[in-house]
């Protein structure tokens, strides 16, 4: 819980840092663009006005902008040709603000800034440049213009940014919730996997150990009984070997993407090859095993013959294992567009709704008591093979009327 909290706190700090950085960068970009555009717009008229003021001429007052000039000592120069207007407290504040730029301007440099200015409803753009007379800086002249467009652009940016941030935060939090949920599920799957593999390995090992201990104590001397012990040990060893082989196969498939060759395959031949041993087994198990005409006449496909044989063998093995005596197992097929489908179905007890979504997981068995033979890894292996072949495997079951597995293959 502490680790999860720390993780969420860390993500919150990242979101906050992104928000602050984005806001600062966005505001800086807008300000830079606005200043550049205003330099191009306002500097030429300011230069002309500066030349007039430097020559002692005066200009006509306009509502578009305000012009102020100062000598090198900071004393205001009257630039307008109308009657003198008494200086207000706002003018005094403006003069004080402009005086801060005088050292820079007196050194012959230009000053430009966007600042809150008394008497303006929005921020104002301030452009200042030296007054030059006879190649000598005699003071500074400023042009002030209300920056309504800049304020509107900035407000629009903040609105868009906040909305985007809010949506992004919701998405990140939703992703985080799903991530934490999936992480917990994966952790639970890992625990279940360890528990299942421990159980699967323990059972045959326990049988082998018990039999060999009894045998080593010379408790059993009857040759027939000894032969029976041999048979059980051999069977349990084979079961253990099968489990380890399946584990290695599944691990190899899941952790190393294998480049399977996919030449043209005679799909009918594949089905015949897989079905042959099961046809013999069906008689022994008193099952009806049927291959439809559609399956016998499937077109050629692009696939890996050995791997498809492996997958179909797994599916048929499961179907035979869970179908009761006098039951039916069928291999059917159909073609849809550029795909061919092989369908393996049975009329056994089916798969419960609870288990169906996890049927391709490791050690998934309908027989929860683990009394059935097999490692419980077959369907996981089949799923990984079809994934790496770029094909699909799916399952349908109503829980009480059999099960149908379908694999897809690309038609040649």
Automatic annotation (TrEMBL):
<keyword id="KW-0597">Phosphoprotein</keyword>
<keyword id="KW-0067">ATP-binding</keyword>
<dbReference type="InterPro" id="IPR003594">
    <property type="entry name" value="HATPase_dom"/>
</dbReference>
<feature type="transmembrane region" description="Helical">
    <location>
        <begin position="157"/>
        <end position="180"/>
    </location>
</feature>
<dbReference type="GO" id="GO:0016301">
    <property type="term" value="F:kinase activity"/>
</dbReference>
<keyword id="KW-0472">Membrane</keyword>
<keyword id="KW-0418">Kinase</keyword>
<feature type="domain" description="Histidine kinase">
    <location>
        <begin position="196"/>
        <end position="412"/>
    </location>
</feature>
<dbReference type="Pfam" id="PF00512">
    <property type="entry name" value="HisKA"/>
</dbReference>
<dbReference type="InterPro" id="IPR004358">
    <property type="entry name" value="Sig_transdc_His_kin-like_C"/>
</dbReference>
<dbReference type="Pfam" id="PF02518">
    <property type="entry name" value="HATPase_c"/>
</dbReference>
<keyword id="KW-0547">Nucleotide-binding</keyword>
<dbReference type="InterPro" id="IPR036890">
    <property type="entry name" value="HATPase_C_sf"/>
</dbReference>
<keyword id="KW-0812">Transmembrane</keyword>
<keyword id="KW-0808">Transferase</keyword>
<keyword id="KW-0902">Two-component regulatory system</keyword>
<dbReference type="InterPro" id="IPR003661">
    <property type="entry name" value="HisK_dim/P_dom"/>
</dbReference>
<dbReference type="InterPro" id="IPR050736">
    <property type="entry name" value="Sensor_HK_Regulatory"/>
</dbReference>
<dbReference type="InterPro" id="IPR036097">
    <property type="entry name" value="HisK_dim/P_sf"/>
</dbReference>
<keyword id="KW-1133">Transmembrane helix</keyword>
<dbReference type="InterPro" id="IPR005467">
    <property type="entry name" value="His_kinase_dom"/>
</dbReference>
<protein>
    <recommendedName>
        <fullName>histidine kinase</fullName>
        <ecNumber>2.7.13.3</ecNumber>
    </recommendedName>
</protein>
């Amino acid at each position: 819980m502490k680790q999860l909290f720390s993780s969420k706190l860390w993500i919150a700090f990242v979101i906050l840092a992104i928000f602050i950085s984005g806001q600062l960068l966005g505001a800086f970009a807008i300000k830079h663009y606005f200043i550049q555009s205003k330099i191009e717009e306002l500097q030429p008229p300011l230069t002309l006005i500066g030349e007039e003021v430097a020559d002692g001429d005066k200009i006509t007052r306009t509502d578009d902008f305000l012009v102020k000039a100062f000598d090198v000592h900071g004393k205001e120069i009257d630039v307008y040709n109308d009657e003198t207007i008494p200086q207000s407290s706002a003018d005094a504040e403006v003069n004080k603000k402009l005086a801060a730029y005088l050292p820079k301007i007196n050194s012959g440099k230009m000053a430009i800034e966007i600042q809150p200015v008394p008497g303006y409803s929005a921020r104002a753009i301030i452009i200042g440049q030296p007054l030059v007379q006879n190649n000598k800086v005699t003071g500074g002249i400023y042009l002030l213009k209300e920056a309504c467009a800049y304020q509107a652009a900035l407000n629009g940016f903040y609105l868009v940014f906040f909305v985007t941030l809010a949506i992004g935060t919701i998405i990140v939090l939703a992703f985080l919730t799903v991530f934490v949920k999936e992480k917990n599920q994966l952790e639970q799957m890992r625990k279940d996997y360890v528990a299942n593999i421990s159980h699967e390995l323990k059972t045959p090992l326990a049988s082998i150990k018990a039999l060999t201990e009894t045998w080593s104590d010379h408790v059993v001397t009857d040759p027939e009984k000894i032969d029976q012990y041999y048979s059980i040990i051999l069977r349990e060893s084979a079961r253990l070997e099968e489990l380890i082989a399946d584990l290695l196969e599944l691990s190899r498939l899941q952790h190393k993407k294998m480049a399977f060759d996919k030449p043209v395959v005679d799909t009918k031949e594949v089905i015949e090859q897989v079905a042959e041993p099961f046809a013999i087994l069906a008689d022994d198990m008193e099952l009806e095993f049927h291959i439809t005409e559609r399956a016998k006449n499937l077109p050629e496909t692009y696939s890996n013959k050995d791997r498809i044989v492996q997958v179909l063998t797994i599916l048929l093995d499961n179907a035979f294992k869970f179908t009761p005596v006098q039951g039916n197992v069928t291999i059917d097929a159909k073609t849809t567009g550029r795909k061919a489908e092989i369908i393996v179905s049975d009329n056994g007890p089916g798969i419960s709704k609870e288990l169906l979504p996890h049927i391709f997981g490791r050690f998934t068995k309908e027989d929860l008591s683990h009394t059935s033979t097999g490692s419980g890894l077959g369907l996981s292996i089949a799923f990984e093979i079809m994934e790496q072949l770029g094909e699909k495997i799916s399952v349908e079951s109503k829980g009480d009327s059999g099960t149908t597995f379908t694999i897809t293959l690309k038609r040649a």
